# Entry
Amino acid sequence: MKVLFSLLLSFIFAPMNSHEIVMRHDVDEAKYLSLAEKYGGSVIRLNAGCGTFVKPNWIITAAHVAVIPQIGNEVTVDGVKYAIKQKVIHPEFRDGVSIMHDIALLELEKPVPNVEQAKLYTKNDELGKKIIFAGTGWAGTGDKGMADGAINKDRKMRAAQNRVDGFRPSGGFIRFTFDAPDSKDALPLEGISGPGDSGGPALWFDGGQAYIMGVSSHQDGRGLGRPEGRYGVYEYYTRVSNYVEWIEQVIGSKK
# Structure
């Protein structure tokens, strides 16, 4: 589950710890499960949170996920355990102080064979693009949010659609809004991430190729008292295009 931070930044908002895929209440959940089967191949469930394969031995996730002890020292893919060789936290991330630079990389001791990989999104034209979230955290619906008794903890992979509608702050995060079904902006499989989805991706697809555009970081009730996971909240993902140079330096790829 996502960690709450004291944000000592020039912008002020109250973050909420964000969780697994939260869906429209008026759509059959099976459609979200099917969307994940089609588009979630590069996403991995970690012992805490989620991540995305960008190389057979490299996973991108959130810094606030990588620093917690529960993430452990291994990952499991198709029943096979792979040791984590190193956890590389962005050097400017300050755990417990700020949510800025919420991005990290996990290197595995050996590559995972035949794993799907997402490419890094390098352009700065994210605004307005439709993306897919995928994750294995707790599930819920936007009418009830993360209220007790309304959460499904089966940890199945689900996916949802959304659209980049803003940035914050100084472009460090891409923003999504959880639009209610009666909104003109709501997509057929509208959703956001939920508990256990931290570190998971916002994926944009060009044909069959996945590009990771963002890394799940935190939610914001917009100062209007909107509870976690309810319609109307903002969802913020670390903007990958801002960190391409750092990522490539770490993983040794200039492609």
Observations:
- The two ends are 33 Å apart (CA to CA).
- Residues 29-39 form the longest helix (11 residues).
- DSSP finds three helices and 18 strands in the chain.
